[in-house]
Structure formats: C-alpha cells, structure tokens
C-alpha cells in the first residue's frame, strides 16, 4: 500500500513539473528543397548526413526533397508564402527579386552575417545574393559558360577574338558540315557574354531598360559576323553536341552541363572565353548564375535553418560538392585544396568567374527574355536589322517595366 501511495505521489509531482525525469530533446526538423539529380543530389545528401550526425545532440535533423526543376519555381511561389513550403530552399538568383517583392518568401539574413562569413565567398557570388542592399541568401555554387575545345583540332586555345577567328576559319567547311565554333548564339543567355564584353547590358541605373544601346547593337553585329563565317546556321543543343562529338566543331561556348554530353573518346580542354579585339581588348563577360541557400520567411526554425545553410557552404561541405557533385562552389578557400586546384574543370570555371557578370536578380529581368528572344530570332532570320529588332525589344521591355512599377 505504501509503495502504491508513493507511485501516485510521483505521478502527481510529474504532472505539476516538480519531479524531473529524463526526456529526449525536442527534435527540430528542417526541410530543405532542391532540384538536384544524379551526382549533385548524392553529394548534397552526403553533406546533409554529415550535418545530421554532427547535430543529433542538438536535436536538429534535416530532411531533403528533390523537386522537379520545371515546376520548382512555381511551387516555391505558391507554397512558401502560405507557410506550406520548406524551411530552406536552393535556387538560382534570377527569381530572388521577384520573391522578395512578393513578400513572405525569403528571409533577410544580414543579422546572421559577420565579416568572416561574408569573406568566405567569391565577392560576385555575394553580389548575386544581395537585393536593394540586403543579403537574402548564402551563395552555394555558380554556373558560367567558358570555352570548351577539341584538343586534336585546337591544340592551343585562342586568347583573343582575332585568334579565335583565325583558328576557326581554318577548321570551317560549311559544305562538309565542319565548323570552327558552335554555340547557341541565338539564345540571349549565351549572347550575354558578347553583350557584356562590349560594355552593354539589359538595365541602366534604376533598372531602366537599355536593350537597344549602341554597345548591344555592336555585340549583335559581331555575333552575326561569326555566324556567317565560322558557325552553323540555327544551332540546336543536339546539333552542337553532335558536331563536337564527331570532331566537326573545334570549339564550343558552353557550361558544365555540356561536359556530361561529351563522348568518352573526345580529348577536350577548357579555357577562358577570349578577349574581344573589336571591343578594345576587353574580355567576354558571360552571365553567372549563382545558386543560393535561402531561409524561408515563414519558417518556425530560422536559426536552425541558417545553421544548415552555413554548414552547406563550409570548406568541408564545399569540397564534397565540388569533387563528388561536380559543382563549382562559391566558397573561396576550397580552391586552395590540392585536389580541387588540380581539377582542370573546376579550375577553368573558377578562372572564368573573374570576368563573369551576375545575372540581374531584379523582378524586371523576367520581362526581358521574351522580347529579347523575339529580337534574336528576327535578326538570325534576317527579317530585321540588329538595331531595328533591338528597338522593338526595348519598347516592349520598357512598357512591361513601367507597368510593373505602377503595381
């Protein structure tokens, strides 16, 4: 009877919180969305497993969800503001401004940043994560186009546009279907390397559209000269890959996504895009897309989520993402690692970043693509001169931008 009374008393004390009993720490589950596949996905999951093991005692556990890329951006826009999305998500900076303006999507993280963390990253990748003076994400990796060449056909890659044309003309025989250079020159994303190299761009101060600037017109005129002399007409992605793998294209302008398409028997190299003799020796400046790790504004575990983001961009994690995931980390220190510095692919893309331009992350950027694409198509079909086509695009973008600002 006495033992029964003691048990009842203990239960009462526990209910009142007066008797301490061992209890497991409450687990904070952090949900991370990404769109990675294959080796990128495997490498990310390895890093997350390391984080979970190191933080088990703190009660923090990360779970990942791979979202199909085609639906990814729309899914973020639809779910995150309503608190139905993840605590963290990985995405390129091109949608950042739009999500910030929409509200309740991306959490500003200046509060968490100190000088040491800011200096962890390649400066331009931090620029890509910054909108109106505020930082909204930690840069994870970047993608940029560079020169990819067939070593058998091009033993020494060109350093200038003059050298590029000289080499390409020797390799080009349009009747035989052979070309010195092949890239998606009708795609505005790829054309940006020339546009920026000539000192052009899509926006001036205050996101004022500058689609038809003299520099942009000159860049398109230069592209057409190359198209008519050393490149295939209407190059599709499949055609470019086929030409390169068959030894019928000496050089290609493309990014890391192209490397996986190169046939095993092709001995290839990577080098920086050439400087432009026609622009006073200035370098070609491709757009750089930077994938950042963003804390969702509605997350109930923001502090823990940021710790995950910090870990994902650490030296240790960046090395795994680079060597096993074949990504180009935004972390600066990792390029001093012996294995990474000896990796020709990683070294080449890191070198190209020195002249790359972060793609604009403003909401107005979404209004550029359709008019710019229409302009490029009209120019390639010779239905319009470069100046006239870019004038039309300028009017369309300016009208849409003005409409956005009235909202």
From TrEMBL:
InterPro entries per UniProt: Maltose/Cyclodextrin-bd (IPR006060), SBP (IPR006059)
Secretion signal span: 1-25
Keyword Nucleus among UniProt keywords: no
Keywords, ordered alphabetically: Signal, Sugar transport, Transport
Signal listed as a keyword: yes
Superkingdom, natural source: Bacteria
Pfam families found in the cross-reference section: SBP_bac_1
Coiled coil: none
Family: Belongs to the bacterial solute-binding protein 1 family.
Protein name as it appears in the record: Extracellular solute-binding protein
Species in which this protein is naturally found: Archangium minus
Organism taxonomic ancestry: Bacteria, Pseudomonadati, Myxococcota, Myxococcia, Myxococcales
């Amino acid at each position: 009877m006495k033992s029964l009374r003691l048990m009842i008393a203990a239960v009462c004390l526990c209910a009142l919180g007066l008797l301490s009993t061992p209890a497991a720490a409450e687990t904070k589950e952090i949900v991370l969305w990404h769109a990675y596949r294959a080796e990128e996905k495997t490498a990310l999951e390895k890093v997350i497993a390391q984080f979970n093991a190191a933080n088990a005692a703190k009660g923090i556990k990360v779970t990942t969800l791979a979202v199909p890329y085609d639906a990814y951006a729309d899914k973020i826009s639809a779910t995150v503001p309503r608190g139905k999305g993840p605590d963290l998500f990985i995405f390129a900076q091109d949608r950042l401004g739009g999500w910030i303006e929409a509200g309740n999507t991306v959490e500003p993280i200046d509060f968490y940043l100190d000088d040491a963390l800011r200096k962890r990253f390649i400066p331009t990748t931090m620029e890509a994560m910054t909108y109106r003076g505020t930082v909204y994400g930690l840069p994870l990796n970047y993608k940029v186009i560079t020169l990819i060449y067939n070593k058998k056909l091009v033993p020494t890659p060109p350093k200038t546009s003059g050298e590029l044309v000289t080499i390409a003309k020797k390799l080009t025989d349009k009747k035989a279907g052979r070309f010195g250079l092949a890239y998606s020159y009708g795609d505005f994303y790829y054309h940006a390397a020339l546009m920026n190299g000539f000192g052009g761009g899509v926006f001036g101060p205050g996101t004022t559209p500058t689609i038809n600037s003299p520099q942009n017109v000159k860049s398109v005129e230069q592209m057409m000269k190359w198209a008519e002399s050393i490149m295939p007409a209407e190059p599709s992605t499949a055609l470019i890959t086929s030409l390169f793998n068959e030894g019928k294209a000496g050089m290609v302008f493309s990014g890391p996504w192209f490397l996986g398409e190169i046939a095993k028997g092709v001995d290839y190299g990577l080098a920086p895009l050439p400087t432009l003799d026609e622009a006073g020796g200035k370098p070609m400046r491709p757009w750089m897309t930077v994938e950042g790790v963003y804390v969702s504004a509605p997350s109930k575990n923001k502090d823990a989520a940021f710790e995950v983001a910090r870990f994902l961009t650490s030296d240790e994690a960046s090395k795994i993402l680079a060597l096993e995931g074949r990504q180009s980390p935004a972390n600066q220190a990792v390029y001093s690692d012996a294995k990474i510095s000896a990796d020709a692919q990683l070294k080449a893309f890191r070198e190209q970043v020195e002249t790359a331009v972060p793609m604009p992350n403003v909401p107005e950027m979404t209004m550029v693509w359709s008019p710019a694409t229409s302009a490029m198509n009209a120019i390639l079909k010779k239905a319009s001169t470069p100046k006239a086509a870019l004038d039309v695009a300028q009017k369309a973008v300016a009208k849409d931008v003005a409409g956005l600002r009235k909202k």
